[in-house]
Amino acid sequence: MRWTPIEPTLAKNKTDTRLGTHPMFLLTPLLLLAGVHAPGGIGVQSAELKFAPKMGVKLTRSFERQTQWKMDSLEITVDGVPTKSPDIKQRLLTDFRVEVQDRIASMGRGRPTNLVRKFTGIHFERKLQLQDQVGQREVIEYGRSALLGKQVEFLLKPGDEGWKRIAKDVPPEVLAGLVEDMDLRAFLPSKPVAVGDAWQVPTDAFRALHRPAGDLDLRIVEQSADAPNEDSARAEAANFEPELSGSIQAKLVQFVNADGRNEAHVALRIDLRALEFESTQDKGSFGTEVETTQRQHHYKLQGQLIWNQDTNHLRSLALDGSVQLRERTAGEQAYIGENIQFERDGTFSGTASYRIHVE
Question: What is the structure's pLDDT at 245?
C-alpha cells in the first residue's frame, strides 16, 4: 500500500482525602472567604490544572486511535497526459492501541525526572477493502513492536539537555524515538482558570495525542494472502513531524465530584491541518521507481478531557470527528530503457476517534 493515513487501572495508591472528611457546607465558605479555592468539586470557582502526581505513584494508561477512510477521487497522469482513472472503490480501517504501566519515581519542575514504563499492550491492525474490475477483496495487516513486554526507564538529571532512556534488549535507535509524556501536559492552561475560561493549546501538542509514547517502531508481521510482500515494513512512518497549522481550543466546562473524585472537565475543539512530505526509491520488477509524496490531512475533532484534581494527572480523554486527506505523488519509473513520468492525485475522507484512560 502506497499511502498510510496519519492516522487499564491505577495501582491502589493512597490519595489525599482530607477534603472529604469535612462537611462541605462548612469548608467551602471558609475557603472562599480566605480567597482560596478547593481543588475541584462543588462550590469551586477557579483552580489550577497542574501535573503533580505523588512520587512513587503507579499508573496504568490505555490509548486507542481508530480511523475509517474511503477514497473519494483518483486522478492519474502519465508523461503529462491524463489517463482514465481506474474504477476502484477503496476503504481503509485502522485500529491502534497501546497500554503501559508507569511508575513515577521522582518529579521536578512539573514533570517526571525518573519514570519507569512497561509496555504491557501494543496492537496495530489495518484493513484495506478493495472493489475493482477484478472483484472484491480484503487485505489485512498486523503490526508488532519489539517494545511489547519491555521496560524502559526515563531519566532527566540537572544539566541534561534531554532524556536518557535505559532498557535491556531494546536497540538504541528504537529507544531514541520514545517520548515520556503521555499525560498531555501541553493541553493544560498556564494559569488558574474558572468555569467558562478558554485558552489556546499549542498545535504541537497534537503530536503527543496522535503518537502516544512516541515512535513504537511498529512493523508489519502478518498479512492476508492478498497483501503485497511487505513483511517487516513499517506500519507507520518513523516520525510524526508534519507542519501543523490551525487551532486547538480548550474551555473549562465544570468542576465535578464523581464517585468521591474531584475532576475538571475541559471541552476540546481541534481544527488542524497536517502537511507531510515523503520521498521513496524502490527497485521493482521493471526498474527503479522514485516517488515524492505530499500528504495534507485536515482534522476536525471535538470532545472532552478530564483532569483528576486529587491526583493531579490526566484521567481520560475522548475525541471524535472527521478527517480528510489529499495525497499527491509525483514520480519516475524506469521501464525498458525509458523513464516514465507519472502523477497521482487522490482524495480521501473519513472519521477518527481518540480515547485515553488513566487509572
Answer: 96
